Amino acid sequence: MTTLKSKLKEDLTTAMKARDELTSSTLRLTLTAITKEEVSGKTARELSDDEVQKVIAKEAKKRREAAEAFSQGGRTEQAEREKAEGEILDAYLPKQLSDDELGAIVASAVEEARAAGAEGPRAMGAVMKIVNPKVAGRADGGRVAASVPPGRARPAARPGR
Fold it and tell me: How far is Cα 89 from Cα 55, in angstroms, rounded to an integer?
């Protein structure tokens, strides 16, 4: 069993003993999602810590989206619960990059993509291909894409066009 999955199970046991309903239900749902991922496909397998982390990140993202939807729908109580569940799951994820740190990584990737000759719409893909492995698990893909400045990733059209 992976160390992250073991930690989740230990924390679930602790939460159950403490009668912490929010934490125990959140961890139960997360462990269920991990088990579901393990048995999906043709053969059952055990997930690595990185794969478990991806499942936790996916679950945390679901909570953020649900909280936003509930708050837009005027259901503040449910929105608060979803936010609290997301915060519990965030404790198992690596520290997220600040906007400045992400901006620095993106800026260096833009220069690297330019040096490789990426132009126009292909530049965005080239930048994302460079940035994603560097920020894996520490920044959401949407956040990364939003931080790529459109004018810098896509150089101006060549003269005469």
Answer: 10
Give the Cα separation of 118 and 33 in Å (integer).
Answer: 39
Task: Tell me the residue type at 31.
Answer: L
pLDDT > 70 in the chain, percent: 84
- Per-residue CA distances from 60 to 37, 106, 158 (Å): 16, 24, 44
């088990």: which residue's tokens? 35
- Which candidate, 65, 57, 140, places its Cα nearest to that of 47? 57
What tokens does 95 get? 């520290």
Query: What single DSSP character describes residue 104?
Result: H
User: In this structure, what DSSP letter does residue 97 have?
Assistant: P
76 contacts 70 by C-beta, under 8 angstroms? yes
3-state class (DSSP) for residue 94:
coil
What does the angle CA 40 – CA 60 – CA 95 come to, to the nearest 5 degrees?
115
Q: Which residue has the higher pLDDT, 147 or 66?
A: 66
The answer to whether 7 touches 92, Cβ cutoff 8 Å, is: yes
Look at the block and give the residue holding tokens 């048995």: 39
Confidence category of residue 154, pLDDT binned at 50, 70, 90: very low
